[in-house]
């Protein structure tokens, strides 16, 4: 049903997406006389557009937000993890939102109200849906930029506000909460949009989503105003009516009916497949990967893969016959002092290839992990970009990527707000003392849903089965994935708080559940500074030790380490080693709206470094 709706949406909205500015100008000049267009098409547009741009997903998510969160890493485009600026990358999210989506958000509200006033239509319920979608959109923008235009955003056409003020993030959160509370009460007034990507017009589902978003906003406020955050959280939690099961999750499905540059794809997914600008270099970070391998996290079969660029796009490597003793859980527990022949390697966070990809030194040269397979030799074997045949030593010296066969491709669903997040939020709120709830139960349910959402919503089960079977055949004959899932849930549940900080355990699992969604994982880190291995200040991690080998260990099984050498990992970027707390405002904002943009910068002046990208947001953890 949802995929059918998307196809209808593409056809009906073609004129709007091809000439959006001209259409809105005409509507303004003619007092919205062209408002005969059914608002349902604008509604599906504002539901989908933020998640369906390959241009923005590549830049905002894969290059910047994901690496800023410490969950993923990008060794080719290191601006995010290297604590540097790139207006070309960070402006894309702003441009998509304020250049397109906000105008539709404002216009649909104006026209629905106009139809109520002039035609007697009962649009209160539809306006409630619009308000909820507005919050979903603005949550991403404020989480990435801090203070942004909110109350006056998009009113250039409807009210002539050409230079909108920047509302403070605190004001935005409080306004969002008020709008959600009102929307929650109005959902039952009149018909809802049934052409609805999330719930097909189900009022009860929309009410659960509104309450779940209130809980999210409450936690976003925890650092800036604990009491107000608690109040907002409880306004939703006390109802007992929020998303609790996977089937209640708000999910946006995607397809390719309009091609890789169209309006229906998963934008970050199509970028992860390298189909909107080339290989995206979206790998798992070393620290995140090892944290999963230490616990034999069964998600690795879903979220991780070697990648293959021998075809026209970036794909997961499927040739299981080219692996030897395959073990996704093996890692180097003596990092820097020896070389281990392990299959899955992550990228260390830094902007120097000697550090973030260097795996050993031989004959005085630093050897790097390869990115991908790039060609096939005369015997039919895959060869990686550093010239190693994969079936031989190449399999032990290649980075592991966010899997394009399963969780992040052009047709992967977008989790707008899923039940795993809600259970983690309740567990966190209870740990903070905000609510009385069974912390262990919600935590374990969150972990369970975070794992089981993959086989529930995502394609790629054949890939997972093939690599589970490979692991069983080559390394662990008794392995059972379903059993391993339950063992993992029990293990992390039993270990909750044993290391002295139950809140970090909860937030770590919440953060880990967002692989592929850099915006969410960054927001989680930014407001908590958990997991603690993602450092706010990496000055003490500027260098790493790399083993010095007597010969190349990818080509010689008997190679041994003769010592180690310190190499540079991180230059400190423009912040003096402080991790970014935000995207900077686009450069053009200081030309077209200078007074308000500069005022927002001045308003957010608490800053551990001299550059604005480390200025704390209201929601940021400040230490």
UniProtKB/TrEMBL annotation:
Keyword Lipoprotein found: yes
Q: Which Pfam family name is an example for this entry?
A: SusD-like_2
Keywords, sorted A to Z: Lipoprotein
User: Which top-level group of life is the source organism from?
Assistant: Bacteria
Q: Which InterPro entries match?
A: SusD-like_2, TPR-like_helical_dom_sf
In its keyword annotation, does this UniProt entry include DNA repair? no
Q: What is this protein called?
A: SusD/RagB family nutrient-binding outer membrane lipoprotein
* Biological source species: Flammeovirga aprica JL-4
């Amino acid at each position: 049903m949802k995929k059918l709706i998307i196809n209808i949406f593409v056809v009906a909205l073609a004129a709007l997406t091809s000439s959006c500015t001209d259409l809105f100008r005409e509507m303004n000049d003619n007092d919205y006389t062209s408002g005969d267009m059914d608002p349902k098409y604008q509604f599906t547009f504002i539901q989908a557009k933020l998640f369906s741009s390959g241009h923005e997903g590549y830049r905002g998510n894969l290059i910047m937000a994901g690496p800023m969160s410490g969950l993923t890493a990008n060794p080719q485009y290191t601006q995010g993890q290297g604590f540097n600026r790139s207006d070309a990358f960070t402006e894309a999210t702003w441009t998509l939102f304020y250049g397109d989506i906000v105008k539709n958000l404002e216009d649909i509200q104006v026209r629905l109200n106009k139809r109520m006033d002039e035609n007697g239509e009962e649009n209160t319920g539809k306006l409630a849906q619009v308000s909820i979608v507005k919050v979903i959109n603005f949550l991403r923008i404020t989480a990435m930029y801090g203070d942004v235009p909110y109350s006056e955003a998009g009113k250039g056409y409807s009210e002539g506000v050409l230079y909108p003020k920047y509302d403070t993030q605190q004001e935005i959160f409080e306004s969002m909460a008020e709008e959600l509370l009102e929307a929650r009460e109005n959902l039952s007034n009149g018909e809802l949009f049934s052409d609805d990507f999330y719930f097909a017009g189900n009022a009860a589902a929309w009410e659960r989503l509104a309450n779940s978003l209130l809980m999210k906003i409450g936690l976003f406020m925890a650092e800036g105003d604990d009491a107000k955050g608690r109040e907002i959280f409880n306004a939703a939690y006390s109802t007992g009516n929020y998303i609790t099961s996977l089937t209640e999750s708000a999910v946006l499905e995607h397809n390719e009916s309009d091609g890789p540059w169209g309006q229906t794809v998963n934008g970050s997914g199509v970028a992860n497949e390298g189909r909107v600008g080339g290989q995206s270099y979206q790998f798992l970070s070393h620290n995140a990967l090892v944290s999963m391998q230490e616990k034999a996290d069964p998600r690795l079969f879903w979220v991780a893969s070697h990648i293959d660029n021998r075809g026209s796009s970036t794909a997961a490597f499927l040739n299981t016959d080219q692996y030897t003793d395959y073990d996704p859980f093996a890692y180097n527990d003596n990092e820097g002092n020896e070389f281990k022949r392990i299959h899955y390697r992550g990228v260390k966070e830094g902007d120097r290839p000697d550090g973030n990809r260097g795996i050993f030194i031989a004959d005085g040269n630093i050897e790097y992990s390869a990115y991908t397979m790039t060609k096939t030799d005369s015997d039919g074997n895959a060869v990686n970009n550093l010239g190693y045949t994969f079936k031989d030593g190449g399999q032990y010296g290649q980075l592991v990527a966010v899997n394009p066969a399963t969780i992040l491709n052009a047709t992967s669903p977008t989790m707008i707000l899923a039940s795993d997040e809600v259970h983690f939020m309740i567990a966190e709120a209870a740990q903070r003392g905000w609510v009385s709830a069974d912390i262990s139960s919600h935590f374990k349910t969150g972990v369970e849903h975070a794992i089981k959402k993959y086989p529930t919503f995502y394609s790629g089960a054949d890939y997972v089965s093939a690599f589970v079977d490979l692991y069983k055949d080559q390394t662990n004959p008794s392995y059972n994935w379903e059993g391993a899932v339950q063992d993992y849930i029990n293990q992390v549940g039993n270990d909750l708080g044993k290391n002295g900080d139950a809140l970090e355990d909860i937030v770590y699992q919440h953060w880990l559940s967002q692989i592929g969604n850099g915006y969410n994982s960054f927001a989680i880190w930014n407001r908590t500074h958990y997991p603690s291995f993602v450092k706010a200040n990496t000055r003490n991690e500027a260098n790493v030790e790399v083993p010095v080998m007597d010969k190349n260990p990818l080509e010689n099984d008997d190679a041994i380490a003769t010592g180690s050498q310190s190499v540079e990992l991180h230059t400190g970027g423009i912040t003096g080693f402080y991790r970014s707390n935000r995207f900077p405002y686009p450069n053009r904002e200081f030309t077209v709206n200078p007074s308000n943009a500069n005022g927002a910068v001045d308003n957010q002046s608490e800053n551990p470094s001299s550059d604005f990208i480390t200025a704390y947001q209201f929601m940021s953890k400040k230490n």
